[in-house]
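Issue: copy button drops trailing tokens. Both records pasted manually instead:
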Amino acid sequence: LVPGRFPQPGHAHLLRLWSVVVSLNAGEANAAYETVRYTCSLRPHSIPIWNLFNKVINAAGNHKYAYKFVLRCLLRNPTSVPCMILMGHHCQMSGSTKLALGEYLRAYKAMPQEPLINLLIGVGYLSHVMSRRCQDRNTTAIRSFTFLFQYAKKRKWSQEVYYNLGRAFHQLGLVSFAHQCYEQVLQMDETLSPELDLKREAAYNLSLIYRASGARDYAFHLLATYCTF
């Protein structure tokens, strides 16, 4: 883009976004990355632009350098919620659960009604429960489910909610509660696309519970009903 060619700044911004989309669809993820970085620097609080940034780095595969850019952007814009969340993801993937929770909680203070942030905090506490460094597992588990149930209310107890709660209970070994959540997923009549429907995943996890309890026939029945093509 030639500086000064566009009288309205919004036109140049739209063309940059289009160049990112075109480069991404053409398989030129590295070229898209350079442009989307500049766009994120101009609009560090825009959630759609950071969603586009995530798509680009997933295609480019340069996560390490991308998160260095996110850190610099967060230092320049300490109130940017997308930067907080992305840095929390990076800390979580690096095994620094406490640092990740710190970033997620900062984002929660800015956007307490956002379901995703409540889910991330709940999962973060759940990961900390499974850590050997956790000194009070009961309290940490209660904190985890506090945020998970807040997430459930904000997502209006959809199929996604019951599956995620089932996974949380299953991870802690509370299989009776996990069983109820997975069964609820299988019984719901939500019309979802195959990419979003979680009945197959719920049936597989439920079959693991039945197999561990000795009910192999019912486990096989679930797999045959929901997990065969």
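Record 2 (pasted manually too):
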Amino acid sequence: MLSREQKDLIASLSTNYKTGRALSHDDDDENESPHHQGHGELNIIKPPLNCPKWACIILPCINHIPSMKLFKSIVPREAEVRIGSRWVCYDASSLNRGDIIRLSEGDIVPADARLLSLGPDFVNDGGIDDDSSGLYEGEEDDTLELIVDSNQITGEPKPRIISLNPDRTVNAVELYAGSVVLHGEAIAVVTKIGGDVLLSRLMREGKWPPKQSQSEWQIVSQNENEEGDDNGITTNNNNQEIV
């Protein structure tokens, strides 16, 4: 079930755990898109070198700078969002504060968010129609856990492992945009987007990439350049995952 902290957070964001933000009076309205209509800031994280497009065309080497390559590997592109009674896949840039999102193994966290529950299904949120058992809807596994890697954002050396508390709640852990879900599924609420997410703030303060990640990507970039020199070509399609 949801903790008091999580319920207060949901209320402060004017959202609903099971239906998301109110977009219309009819939760099943098929014409409720575009999702971001009527809202201001987009969930767009600017790259570390925010050059105009013409500069990237004239100077393609900009895209091969280690920090730019790392940024491209972690920038979120899609998000699974709760719209009324449905889960809908949207472009991550359309997210708003208060959106209820579902995360699955392999996903890149699309915005800064707070964890609400583990597993793909909703838990009883303590509402008037819920019993007090706190059991998951369709899920009774006490071994549920979520493993999230934030190394490329914060430099944390080890992934975070989040599991259920004895009372079957889960701590409202903050998940950062650009982090990778290594294992498990979860439901979370978006708390920060675009220029307000931790990744954006770290870049503005000159604290990103983390030193460890930066040195690793410099090694990868150097190896690519050496391979390109040996073959007489420049490679730009290396998708190696740094572990």
